[in-house]
Amino acid sequence: LKTQAEHLAGWLQAQGVGAGDRVALYLQNCPQFVVALYAIFRANAVAVPVNPMNRADEFGHYISDPETKVVICAADLAGFVAEADAALPPAQRLKAVLVTRYSDTMPQGALDPAEAPNAAIEQWLRADPPLPAGTVRWTDALAAGHVPGPHSAGPDDLALLPYTSGTTGLPKGCMHTHRTLMHNVLAGAIWGCSTSETIGLGVVPMFHITGMLYGLHVPIYLGSCAVIMPRWDRDVAGRLISTYKVTSWTMVPTMMIDLLASPNVARYDLSSLQYIGGGGAAMPQAVAQKLLDQFGLKFVEGYGLTETAAPSHSN
């Protein structure tokens, strides 16, 4: 992870990315998201995470508003980036686009049945669509072996610009420094009773502040394990919890409701779970009671905002 992040940081700097410049991340949960985020930080730049469900007419705002210089995206989204960029005045356009296929970090052969998603999702993960002219492939950027310059970003430098829909108008960027992120990384690890032995299920989207904190930063801070899911699938989640003995799961309550509603739920061994919690909505009392009665687990409800770098309250 460190080596790849440094090579990618060097590549970003070779594209002209300097201290405080914005680099957008436009992809689902995957190892590349983790590498790219730390590469941006290592390059003394600012990450702009973008919802991968956005399309070209929405994505242009994430280029023009934060004055993004480079986009790192998934192959299936590269066309939207090109379309959005072409619609902007020349002075606002991107300097470079780096494209990864999800399969760049996947095994080449057949997947373990315990991990395999349904055929449609695996086909999406392995897809290699034609790329717009001028884009650079992830594997080529890493293979170039660039070495980054000195690391100069400090605790009070801007690190992250996650966007929130707010109440009116276009989405607005929330300014977070390395210090404000680190506060909640540490608090999240402590509140979640996590240690280096924790095995977390990283399924909340990493472009979202909650997923980024609990599925990405906290495991790295602790030196613990993250089992990453690129897209929600209740039966894949059940198999992964059973196979990897997941101990901690931060979620949106609808995920747990969906898993418990699966006709296959009795096949899954959920006994390894020690901590479950999340936010975005209240957990229905009947479901919370079922979790307590059946698994001895209390659902920990949290509340937070993109503006507060995720949790501000936890019960």
Structure keywords:
globular, 315 residues, 6-stranded mixed β-sheet, 11 helices, alpha/beta, 19% strand
**C-alpha end-to-end distance:** 34 Å
Order of helix and strand elements from N to C terminus: HEHEHEHEHEHEEEEHEHEHEHEHEE
Poorly predicted residue ranges: none
Taking the sheet with the most strands, its summary is: 6 strands, mixed
Count of helix runs: 11
SSE-based structural type: alpha/beta
Portion in beta strands: 15-25%
- Give the number of DSSP strands: 15
Task: Identify the quaternary structure here.
Answer: single chain
Proportion of residues in helical segments: 25-40%
Averaged pLDDT: 95
Strand order of the largest sheet: 11-10-12-13-14-15
Radius of gyration based on Cα positions = 19 Å
What is the overall shape? globular
Structure description:
There is one protein chain. With 315 residues, this protein is of the alpha/beta class. The protein is built from 11 helices and 15 strands. The chain has helices at residues 2-14, 31-42, 56-64, 78-86, 119-126, 138-143, 178-191, 209-222, 234-244, 253-260, 285-295, and strands spanning 22-26, 46-49, 68-74, 96-100, 136-137, 158-160, 163-164, 172-173, 176-177, 199-202, 225-228, 248-251, 275-278, 299-305, 310-314. The strands form 4 sheets. It has a 6-stranded mixed sheet, sandwiched between helices. Strand 3, helix 4 (78-86) and strand 4 form a beta-alpha-beta unit. Helix 9 crosses helix 10 (253-260). The model has no long low-confidence stretch (mean pLDDT 95).
